Amino acid sequence: MAIALTESRRVDLTTKYPPRAAVISWLFFDWAAQPYFTLITTFVFAPYFATHVAANPVSGQSLWGFATAAAGLAIALMSPVLGAIADASGRRKPWIAAFGALLVIGSSLMWFARPGDTSTILPLLLAYGVATIGVEFATVFNNAMMPTLVPPDRIGRLSGTGWATGYIGGILSLILVLGFLAASPETGRTLFGFTPLFGLDPVAHEGDRISGPLTGVWFIIFVLPMFLLTPDYPAKSTLRNALREGMADLRQTLRELPGRKSMAAFLLANMIYTDGLVSLFAFGGIYAAGTFGWNTIEIGTFGIILAIAGTLGGWLGGKLDDAFGPKRVITGSMLMLLGAIVAILLVDKDRVLFVKVMPPVPGGALFASAAERAYLVLGCLIGAAGAPLQAASRSLLIRIAPKDRIAQYFGLFALTGKVTSFIGPLLIGVITAATASQKAGMAGLVVFFLVGLLLLSRVRE
Fold first, then answer.
1. What is the pTM of this model?
2. What is the pLDDT of residue 421?
3. CB-CB contact of 299 with 292 (8 Å)
4. Among 55, 88, 109, 378, whose CB has the most other CB atoms within 10 angstroms?
5. DSSP secondary structure letters along 187-225
């Protein structure tokens, strides 16, 4: 063991890492991709779809859940195969470019989500599925570049800084939409009191719909530094040979996985708690829209505050990761999420925990009621815990995965993050539809984090 550790340190000392500019450029991928999750899946487009395109919020939440589940299943089936092929071929950037194109195309089509036009529901959900597949696969290959950028003892900081950078990008994109593009249909004014840029019509919710094309343009602009300045892996094989070699390597990895007990336990834990986290973020805005009647400006302002908490959480989590190890960061994050979810289920528009409060006044000040402020605080806890949970998860994978099969293991990482990812949204969709209660649909998420904690206890770093 001592000899192996000595050899590992010697390899680390002799490995040449790229300059600082290359690392910073890599961080811009998270900046480029985050608005998809901030604007589309959480705070602007998803609540708009549920409340203004679908027949009613309950139906909208169910349909969005089914579409998320279908996209997650497709990602789960394809991720390990693509990761194995990428390891065999060596290149990462061509894959990022191809799947980034799907993200741009799918998100841009969301402009056609006219309010009340139910004929657009199916095409919109298909576009959402295509864009989701694109952003998730592009992220798989971007993550696989991390081990060549910094030494192993700085992986946690790199991962945490990436998530924090992404959250800042999400905040700025939200400020752009809420402050200058999306206006209240009642007042015709944005959050900053302006009339919308480009003559966007508040009554037609064009400010909400522009979040789709904006996400695509944002990605194209801000992913360019990574393509221009961050070095890629050298090409090792043709696509045909890579396909053959990659599938053989994948079969070998799957045969070995039961013997890698710590890795198997981690991938299983990631499968469970990621499902809960994705569902929590995907339906948090929809839940708030249905519970408090929040419009785009209120939900988006909530998102900005939550993203600021996530930025701080991701940055601090990266430092804690390098200091105490990613497993402890993941455990602490899940405990925070569990407490926040339980508390949210005890908050309604006229109740905080077990105390009756005055409900929100229509047309009143922003977050004026006690229930809204409580939801705001709990949302900040979720944001502060969610960022380090995700950052430390990819850091832990890098620490325990074989370096020559890193993309393949990130494919398995994406597989376990997606193979059951349809269960959370599907469960929320089915329970919400069966009970006509958004609260009942959200309650099942508690189980995901409890099981994830139990499985994580079996992981050894």
1. 0.73
2. 64
3. no
4. 88
5. T---TTSPPPGGG--TTTTHHHHTHHHHHHHHHHHHHHH
